[in-house]
Write a structure and sequence with these properties.
Layout: H1 2-13, H2 18-29, H3 34-41, H4 45-65
């Protein structure tokens, strides 16, 4: 069941742009702060925060289309 859930999450992440996907992965997968992400990516922390914030509705819709709700 866990493997199935992880595969659905990977498919949901595929709907995002490469930049948005990387920001979401660093924030929630690697649990980095926006400042840590900025250092790693060479982008401003505010830019990365905006990417994550804008990515979440698309990610949520993609998960809901796969039958995962409440995220």
């Amino acid at each position: 069941h866990r493997a199935s859930l992880l595969e659905r999450l990977r498919r949901a992440l595929d709907v995002l742009s490469a930049e948005a996907r990387r920001a979401v992965e660093l924030r929630y997968g690697e649990m980095l702060s926006y400042d840590e992400m900025a250092e790693l990516c060479g982008a401003r922390a505010g830019t990365l925060q905006m990417r994550v914030t804008r990515a979440m509705p698309a990610l949520r819709r993609s998960l809901e289309m796969q039958g995962i709700s409440g995220v």
